Amino acid sequence: MMHSMSPDRRAHNSPGKCLYTTVRELVENSLDSAESISELPVVEIIIEEIGKSKFNSLIGLVDRERIDAELYDDYETDKAREKRLAKEARAQEIQTKNAALRKKVKEPVASKGIKGRGEASFYRVTCKDNGKGMPHDDIPNMFGRVLSGTKYGLKQTRGKFGLGAKMALIWSKMSTGLPIEILSSMRNQSYTSFCRLDIDIHRNIPHVHLHEKQESKDRWHGAEIQVVIEGNWTTYRSKILHYMRQMAVITPYAQFLFKFVSDAPDKNVTIRFARRTDVMPPVPLETKHHPSSVDLLLIKRLIAETSKQNLLQFLQHEFVNISKSYAERLIGEMGPDFSLKMAVKSLTSQQIVRIHQLLRQAKFDDPSGDCLSPAGEYNLRLGIIKELHPDMVATYSGSAQVFEGHPFIVEAGVSVGGKDVKQGLNIFRFANRIPLLFEQGADVVTRTAMKRINWSSYKINQMQDKIGVFVSVVSTKIPFKGTGKEYIGDDITEIASAVKYAIQQCCVQLKSKIVKKMQAREQQERKRNLSKYIPDATGAVYNILKEMAQLHASKKSRLTDGNMELLRKVSTGLITKETLSEKLAKHVEQVDYEMALEYATQSGVSEEPREAIYIQSLEAENKTIDLRAPLFVFRVIQ
After folding, report:
1. CA–CA distances in Å: residue 623 to residues 497, 560, 571, 620, 632
2. How far is CA 605 from CA 178, 513, 524, 533, 600, in A?
3. CA distances from 287 to 38, 130, 303, 360, 483 (A)
4. How many CB atoms neighbour CB 493 within 10 A?
């Protein structure tokens, strides 16, 4: 049992990480609980900072003044204090000089407060949800017994270690000794369950302080879990807030309220992540093991737990993709020591090894992805838009694929621009719909986005654009790497290929949007350049027309009837400079549209042409007049 808890201890390798892990486990439990009853999740998480005096009062310890200061490792001798103060004074003097000279310098590193190893920060973490709640009698074992349940089948789950909120209870036991408090109520239940307990780590049994039923007044259902742990908010503040933000991206159908409460009001934080949609992914389904994915220990466990009597029934009913006829063929291949009707419980160790070898070597149809529950393109797109407000976004959801007998689905989103997004690649990784925040560099998503995507071929500048890359992998088995299970390895070809393809499909969508945007920008620029010359052209043409009208009046020019009518209108003021300017503007609009349409047609972008504008031509017969204005402006005048 103690060995089974070792991943937990490794995950809690620092107080700050423990605070983050506790928040994560409680939030994920709450989401699972609400989704299991098809309830749109409402999750409230509160972290309350607890000072030393308050913590001592919680554990019943009276504060004592220090008598022998030299006993403590934060003790500072007079000489050391004098040296530190002199150093701080010199640093302040240099900063003042540089400020006077207007030099840009780094802020001086604040002198680290001398803090003894015995000093710690404590926090009360409370998580409340509207999930299914827990049966009253099951609460002690659900929290106070590690690995109390067995997973017979396979199922896509959010957790990494399978311990859930028990991790918070174990860390609380190790760091503060204080019990955890659980408030729970189920639908149509007339009471609320309250339980205060901790865990006897060595005996792996719950130690119950209080377990009672209380009157329920508001018909609330769900769970509220409260735990006091050692932690470090200062170091892990950004990680916790990033986690909540990314959870809001991948779960836009949930409503989150996050609060950090401190005695110092300026440190308080309240963030509400609003619900954007009421469309929830389906609940993941439990499925049986694929024969090519099992190991020797799992086969032995399945044999020990099966209700089937003979080998034929065992193979047919305890695995996916083994029909009765295929099971008969497999047993025939095993050798003369095997038969269809032999008792499965009577198999020897050597016979079980033979079964294992054959299952690994034989070919089976791939498992389907029907048991998986991806976030869905709709939810992923909504989540990205809601939290990042990008200029443009593209999403893609792949079909189910298989590695080592396990089905998996890769979904991806790529955004450009947005709020609180840094220049370059901003990578967001999700596994079974939970954010992965640590050990990013070795992750398959990071390596693919950084090294295997030619961003420039999609009109995206990898260094200057604000690019968001979102990849979510769901599977009955996520191939996590590292003791903390914080990243997905880059060594599984099937997953690496699927991740690359999904990102590329998003980029293809974005490229067409970017090209259209560039065309629109070029069209605006052309129009602006043409429009800039309208006043000058108008003045030049109008002056020429006036000159021609004067020549006609003195009978020194020979013109057609149409031109004579035009000059008469100029003379009588029916055509003014403003009229000409308006006609030129319309002509610029028409020419600009025709150029854009021709360019778009060549680029494969089709658009219905607008109503044609017919422009009457006008040719002057008098060859002696020097027409300085461009010829096309005469064609504008109808």
Report:
1. 72, 13, 21, 7, 17
2. 67, 11, 17, 30, 5
3. 20, 27, 17, 19, 27
4. 9
Topology at the third CATH level for domain 3-58+119-273: Heat Shock Protein 90 (3.30.565)
Handedness of CA 261, 266, 269, 271 (dihedral sign): positive
Q: Which residues, in sequence order, are CB contacts of 451 under 8 Å at separation 6+?
A: none
| Residue-wise burial string across 23-49, b where 16 or more C-beta atoms lie within 10 A, e elsewhere | bbbbbbbbbbbbbeeebebbbbbbbbb
379-516 shares the fold of 291-361 = no
The whole-number pLDDT of residue 573 equals 64
Tell me how far the alpha carbon of residue 187 is from its chain's centroid: 32
Distance (Å, whole) CA 556 – CA 559: 10
Does the pLDDT value for residue 571 go beyond 80? no
* 196 has a pLDDT exceeding 80: yes
Backbone phi and psi for residue 252, each to the nearest 5 degrees, phi listed first: -70, -10
pLDDT of residue 149 exceeding 60:
no
Q: What is the DSSP letter of 63?
A: -
Mode of pairing for the β-strands spanning 191-200 and 180-185: antiparallel
- Length of the chain equals 638
Just give the CATH number of 379-516: 3.30.230.10
What is the bridge-based pairing of β-strands 401-403 and 406-416? antiparallel
For strand 392-397 and strand 401-403, is the pairing parallel, antiparallel, or unpaired?
unpaired
Class of domain 291-361: mainly alpha
Which amino acid type is present at position 74?
Answer: D
- Give pTM, 2 decimals: 0.70
* Higher per-residue confidence, 184 vs 572: 184
Which range, 84-98, 501-515, 544-558, 621-635, is most confident? 501-515
**pLDDT of 241:** 93
- Which phi and psi angles does 293 have, rounded to 5°? -105, -5
CB 331 within 8 A of CB 312: yes
Task: Specify whether the CB–CB gap between 247 and 224 falls below 8 A.
Answer: no
Contact between 462 and 455 (Cβ < 8 Å): yes
The Cα 636–Cα 584 span in angstroms is 6
**Would you state the pLDDT for residue 97?**
78
CB 197 within 8 A of CB 227: no
pLDDT tens profile 374-433: 888 888 998 899 888 898 899 999 888 888 888 899 999 999 988 888 888 999 999 999
Least-confidence region, from 41-45, 99-103, 477-481:
99-103
Domain ranges of the chain: 3-58+119-273, 291-361, 379-516, 533-636
pLDDT surpassing 80 at residue 476: yes
